[in-house]
Design brief:
Strand content: 25-35%
Shape: globular
Largest sheet: 9 strands, mixed
Strand order of the largest sheet: 14-13-12-11-7-10-9-8-15
Radius of gyration: 20 Å
Structural class: alpha/beta
Mean pLDDT: 95
């Protein structure tokens, strides 16, 4: 399958590295408005995790400076959209209308209406649409999903994700373009909660937002009809130096599973006092995510492991939690 990567920032660079390990996909084109990046020099690219960017050999692939021209190229089967957040929905919609399968970085869109439109267009044209909710392909989170069914009723789950406010792109601090730190960052954990537990019946949230200072924090609670609760917490903690981290603790009747990127691998703690590290698959989540998309697109098969319907719900739930934060802890119905 011939695939094009649109956007050569941090995520574009990450996806390019992953594509080198996927023989089923052929990188045939790239798009950027950064001339240095179009020449393959991504060494100046920054992100909130991982190392510096690399240099890529783009001599044998097409280099586009116009999105419309790329999307009109009949040789391109699928696009991998790693553009700024406010461009996700309009470019994905244009790509679907041009007959391309679409992998689009999270979040799928900035509004529920735009997310719904993308889903409807993909269905109408019988094309694969998948949002890059990569935690579904991280071994630390897949082992959680695989282990939970044997532990019985889940009482409470806690997911936290934090990082420094980004300084490499000014648009990220414009909430109309990025959704803010809470929307852009915690949508990963919102998606995991939906993946594991489905939609809650009610929600509440507290937090603080001061994007000029690089602060955007939220602690939300999802309430489920069976009495279980999920807490999602984190956001931006000042610019530049604050380290990225992610973690979870899930308490079920049969034991507690805990993980932290700060050095605690997923471990099951049981009531009998046993402590069992969970066996992780040796796989790169970005490689597995993009390989899965390519397989689905090649077979024109619905991406059951990361369905677009769930990504639409993640967008809508993230927006609801942001509104709930303004109500300072008031419990509100979850009507999406």
């Amino acid at each position: 399958m011939k695939i094009a990567v649109l956007g050569l920032g941090f995520m574009g660079s990450t996806h390019l590295k992953a594509l080198r390990s996927i023989p089923e996909a052929t990188l045939c084109a790239v798009f950027s408005n950064d001339e240095r990046a179009l020449e393959g020099d991504l060494s100046h690219i920054q992100g909130n995790l991982g190392g510096p960017g690399e240099r890529f050999d783009f001599t044998a692939i097409k280099k586009y400076r116009d999105v419309g021209a790329l999307l009109a190229d009949p040789e391109i089967d699928a696009v991998d959209i790693c553009l700024p957040t406010f461009l996700h929905a309009p470019v994905a919609l244009q790509a679907l209308r041009g007959g391309k399968h679409v992998l689009v970085e999270k979040p799928l869109a900035l509004t529920g209406a735009d997310a719904d439109e993308l889903l409807a267009e993909a269905r109408r044209r019988n094309l694969v649409l998948m949002s890059a909710q990569v935690l579904r392909f991280f071994s630390q989170y897949r082992v959680l999903r695989d282990t939970l069914p044997a532990l019985g009723h889940v009482r409470h789950a806690f997911f936290r994700r934090r990082c420094a406010a980004p300084v490499w792109s000014k648009w990220l601090h414009d909430k109309s373009k990025s959704g803010g730190g809470v929307f852009d960052l915690l949508i990963h954990d919102i998606d995991v909660a939906l993946w594991l537990f489905g939609l809650p019946s009610r929600v509440s949230a507290i937090g603080s937002e001061d994007l000029e200072r690089g602060i955007d924090l939220l602690t939300a609670t999802l309430f489920y009809a069976d009495g279980s609760t999920v807490t999602i917490s984190g956001g931006w903690h000042h610019p530049k130096s604050y380290p990225f981290s992610m973690e979870y603790t899930v308490v079920a009747d049969g034991g507690t599973i805990e993980y932290s990127s700060a050095g605690r691998p997923p471990t099951l703690y049981k009531a009998d006092g046993s402590e069992t590290p969970l066996e992780l698959a040796e796989a790169d989540g970005y490689v597995e995510e993009i390989r899965y998309f390519v397989q689905c697109a090649t077979a024109n098969r619905r991406p059951e492991l990361c369905p677009p319907e769930s990504s639409v719900e993640a967008v809508k739930l993230a927006l609801l939690l942001d509104k709930a934060r303004d109500k300072n802890g008031e419990i509100i119905p979850c009507h999406l």
